[in-house]
Amino acid sequence: MTRPLHLAIDLDGDGAHPAAWRHSGRPPGAVFTGSALRATVTEAERAGFALVTFDDGPLPPSGGPNAAGRLEAGTRAAFAATVTGRIGLAPTLHATTTEPFHTATQLASLDHASRGRAAWIVGAAADPDAFATIGAEPPAPEALRREVLDVVEVSRLLWDSWEDDAVIRDAASGRYLDADKVHHVDFEGATFTVKGPLITPRPPQGQVVVLAPDTLGLGGRADIALVAAPDPGAIEERAGRARETGVPLVFAEIEVVLGATAAERAALLDEDTPWPDGGGLRFTGTAEELTRLLSSLADVVDGVRLRPAVLAADLPVLAGAVLPALAAAGLHRPPEPGATLRAALGLPRPANRFAAAQAGPRNEVTAR
């Protein structure tokens, strides 16, 4: 029996197309306001999406006549936590240009703020301009991959550095925490070291949900592999290879332009600025056609991340037509109120590795 698809949507800027800001129906600067973010994220939550994502990078998302800025993704996700109650929140944080300790802290804090709805899209900026923002040269591909692996591993260690019951809040004795249940990590990677412990108690989910492009090769270190391929057959092939690495879930990446006049809209957008080919499936067509495509992928992947060309035009079609049609066919189920993102995705809450076994002196656990 086909299982329901987990549906995610990217809410970066005015849409995924570089000319989206020209067709958003609002002043370009409005994208920086809290009211704009509140409107899109609450619409996505009402529609029943399991997860929203916020793209980001060390550099502006576009240049030339479309030069644009964006608010930092983690900050957008933190704001979204205050105006939503069910939907997962996944900022892109770049492992190669952000301090690992700060990354782990920011994500743990987001999980607390959202009551267990945080996720992380692992970014891996590799071009010279991105590394110039931190005054460094880009590493060789294998060294870059090693650094990304190290950042994900140390983040997971830091999230476990507080046991679940480390905070005791015993007013009678004046003890806030049990220090024996807060652990040093002592991580030594190829390019950095982290002593730990984290300054934030263990996230409500135990471990924040980690999403990563399958091209990063994280395998089972990620909870979700994001697969970008140009057609359903290629998606199926890539998804199969991703599953062989031990990743629990696989999501397909799909860019969408929707509506009866979708082809004309796409042409107008590209007339302003051509949409670069990101290597993934780009769908242009009606809501009914997209519903059929997603239905055909339900036996191939566990979920889909949709990237609407223009949020103002495409999100209402997704919310009003595509998701209801999938729900009627038993292929979509919105997250339950109060559920963590892990629960909504069917992922177990991981046991704390330090609580299970002590390796060495109390409060001095060595990771490597």
In words, what does this structure look like?
This is LLM class flavin-dependent oxidoreductase. It comes from Actinomadura rugatobispora. Pfam families: Bac_luciferase. Residues 21-264 form the Luciferase-like domain. The chain is globular and about 65 Å long. It has a single domain, classed as TIM Barrel (Alpha-Beta Barrel), CATH 3.20.20.30. It is 34% helix and 17% strand. The protein is α/β, with parallel strands linked by helices and 368 residues long. α1 packs parallel to α9 (311-328). The strands form 3 sheets. Strands 1-2-3-4-9-10-11-13 form an 8-stranded parallel beta barrel, surrounded by 7 helices. A two-stranded antiparallel ribbon has the order 5-6. The chain is built from 11 helices and 13 strands.
Q: Secondary-structure blueprint of this entry?
A:
Blueprint: E1 6-10, H1 34-47, E2 51-54, H2 73-83, E3 88-94, H3 100-113, E4 119-123, H4 128-132, H5 141-159, E5 167-170, E6 175-177, E7 187-188, E8 193-194, E9 209-213, E10 224-227, H6 232-244, E11 249-258, H7 262-272, E12 281-285, H8 287-297, E13 303-308, H9 311-328, H10 341-345, H11 353-356
Parallel strand pairs: 1-2, 1-13, 2-3, 3-4, 4-9, 9-10, 10-11, 11-12, 11-13
Antiparallel strand pairs: 5-6, 7-8
Organism: Actinomadura rugatobispora
Protein name: LLM class flavin-dependent oxidoreductase
InterPro entries: Diverse_substr_monoxygenases, Luciferase-like_dom, Luciferase-like_sf
